[in-house]
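User: Predict the complex.
Assistant: Input components as received:
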Amino acid sequence: MLEDIQYQYLSIPLSGLNQADEDNRISIPADYAQLEKSISETGLISPLIVCASGAGYKVICGFKRLDILKKIKPGAPVKCLVTDPLPPADQLALNIAENISSRELNPVEAANAIAKLSAFYGRGEIIEKFLPAMNIQKSEYAYNKYISLASLGRRAKEFTASGRIPLAAAFQIVKFSCSEQEMFLNVIEACRMGANLIVETAQLVFETSMQYGVCAGEILTRAGCESIISNADLTPNQKTEEIRRALHSLKRPMYESAMARFRELAAEFDSRKISLNPFAYFEKDEISVKFNITSIKDLETKIAALERLKESRLAAEFLKNNGGHGDGARKEGKAGR
Amino acid sequence: MIRYYPEKIIILDDARVRDSIITKNILSAVEGRNISVSYFCEEKIAAMIQDAKKLENSYGEGKKTLLITANRGEFLKKCPGTNDYICCDYYIIDFAQNCPMECTYCILQAYLNNPFMVVYANIEDLFAELNSRLFADPHKKYRIGTGEFTDSLALEHLSEYSKILMDYFSDKPQFIIEFKSKTDYVKTFTNRSGARRNVIISYSMNAANVNRFEELKTATIEERLIAAAECVKAGYKITLHFDPIIDYDDFETEMALTVELIFKYLKPRDILYISLGAFRFIPALAEIIALRFPKSRIIYNEFIKGYDKKSRYFRFKREKLFASVIDSIKKYDTASEIEIYFCMESPEMWNALLKKAPRSDEELGGTLYDKCRNCFKAI
């Protein structure tokens, strides 16, 4: 039982700690600026928890603190609470308990914790006992999601842990390979995308890859993401727009093709300041026509333009009773698989 | 096809259920099998349902339990339609819920809030309701099915519900009753003398590869068609439903294989009508499919939000899919003996691919009803 553990206070030189042994680590090595500042200014307030292991000591709790101490006080001994040797499952449980008693785990830490716990505990026990303690919904669904998150690549983990990508996006990109995750992260960084756009883009890439039965990297390549983000003439917003347009074209090729055809045929009315739009997703054979009139002469111009619309290829292809029914658009539109 | 047997049976401890012929049929059918049978009150059953919902894969696990209970709501329901899409004015008898088969696309996964297989045994209440409602409008052309919230024949080897319903409708020829299935169960229709003249046996059809990879634990298309041919031999008429039509690999070839198979076993005159409906789904179903069937790619395609708020294929894609199926059918049905109609499609789709769109749901329902009645009269 964790509450029965006896601790002994010791100062241990860094060389006495088995630094390579990260069995109990749930945090990811990263830049802990705030904690580093605190330790630099006031020293280590909370000691590490370690247990005797072989000739040295194995770290149970305090990996972030250890990372910092190695960096800023490499020669100084480390304040530690030493326990008797503990079974691995208890070491991990103790680490998780120590962490959640002082702060909330970020999603990656929670994922790492759950993944490591699964080596010692059954799925049901983790769901019942550990998920609520980590403020995670007590469900099979949440368990599976977090277990999957543990397999994110290192940079994707950093982005997720720091909140630079939302959790919903992390759950999508975990289905990508590590190199594809890198490509995706490069895209969102170059475009300086906000949270909603990141989620939407991650989902779009994943769904399109499933639609075509290819990997996510292939979709990012087909969308020309690499050349878009390296184009110095584009602002981040323009890059975002370009990438979204390219991904949507891949996701809905028939619609994009029909829209392109519609725009091409409607273009001749642009100069008359008549706006023509199809019914949403072309579900009905209807065209919406909008214009303003400023004078009687202007009205006459618009009426003449509408007369031309009657005989136009646009009407022939996109209105009923013309035998067309968007044939042009349909011939262009290829199924997305 | 392997027939469904539950691991346990739970029966509502209520005389209407306990003493029902349905309950007796089921208990008799499972006699000698290692299936536990328990009687519980309503509160206890409600608690068991809640517990079952917490199970991992509750939808799959729940089916191992067969709940025989009472339907406290309406049995006869109108098939829900949506303005702007044309519906066929169909009615449903809600006699059971859930299905032992595992079609990846099945809407029941998102629709039902009880993971058990459920059979409503209060059949006297059902008959009382039908007696009072069906005769209220003598001009109403009722086509009634039982395969909406379950498969019409998936539990027939246990409950014989369809047989009982056929007997009920046997002296009411003005009502058309349709049993819709993905099974190959035929005993109900072949083990009796003389076909009922208001009964239609109906089979779901799909492209051969969709049947293989997305319709798990069902009868194969060929098994269904062999069953259909047996029903025809027994004097029944058949209807076929291509719904959901799914944009799948090698669509045209695989669909053509199915259509070829249809006309290997059936003649055009054996088939009253064929309905076509393209795959559509609510967001909740997409999540369930992604979770339960991660290998299935059916939810990843070029979808739009339809008027009914469901995702459906982009119009021109639907049109291509439908045109392919219709062309395949027409190759065999050269005299246009089979009525083809769309399930939940826009007037634009009708006008593009079939004859002029019906002006109302009632008009389409009436056309299908008349087709059935005229055919039955001619027999």
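Residues 104-151 of chain A form one domain.
Let me know if you want any component modeled separately.
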